[in-house]
Amino acid sequence: MTSLENMRIFMRSVELGSFSAAGRALRMSSAVVSYRMQTLEAELGCQLLVRTTRRMNLTERGRVFYERCLDVVEAVERAEASVAEIAGGLRGPLRVTAPLGLGRRIVAPLARTFRSIHPKVEVRMRLSDHLLDLVGESIDVALRMARFDDSSFTIRKIADVERVLCAAPAYLAAHGTPESPDDLFTHHCLLLRYPGAQQFRWTLLMDGDPATFPVSGPLDADDGDVLTHWAIEGQGIVLKPIFEVAELLSEGRLVPVLPACPPIPVTLAALYPTRRASAVSKAFVEALVEDARAYLHRSLAVLGKAPG
Q: How many CA atoms lie within 13 A of 157 on its CB side?
């Protein structure tokens, strides 16, 4: 009989595209993964994968088997979760990712609280303003702020997030206040930079229609909080979610720039795999949505605003 463990190894190999990547995710050598796949194919009496030096493809039988494995593993994980809850609550590892700022302010405190309620859960947190590969990194729950397209992940919307261009009064006094988006070309724009980042172009709403403008500046970083500190110090204009700078705006330490042409809003949401989402993941998402909405309410209250 085919073992459940071999099925899981097969699925990770397919999802990550190689035995070496699957081995890293599962904490085993690629040689062990290869041996397990040879064993699985021998048990089934057919070839599941076609492997070359550059890529790995499913055979037709492999594709059918993968689809059935999804159903089997999902059913087993649901059964295991049900037994675990009856036997004494949620348990097991939980891999969570979030942007640095939101991770520090929302996810880290929640992880501590969640663990106090479910002490058998192990939270593995990856905070980064880079967009991690959720499948490749074996992420169970992600907190993201983006414009979402189709996704193989279930998206739990938390709120629509307004964004704002802002700068310190000292910067505007020294460099002038932009009167139109075209004026941004001559200003120091503080940019969130990492491989694949799109913030070297800012999309603003002009008379309700989006228009994209290339921007640049002498300072960039891969940490959004660093950009905020630079803006406070008068180093340039920054694009931020309004809740992150609401208090600074209310105090006058930062002021809006081009308020008639705001950046397009984004959605703050929690993501988890549509299939094979564990009871631990779903419980954490429920708590995350509640805590994130509460954080947004507190942050925006100083401006008399409410989350969208």
A: 10
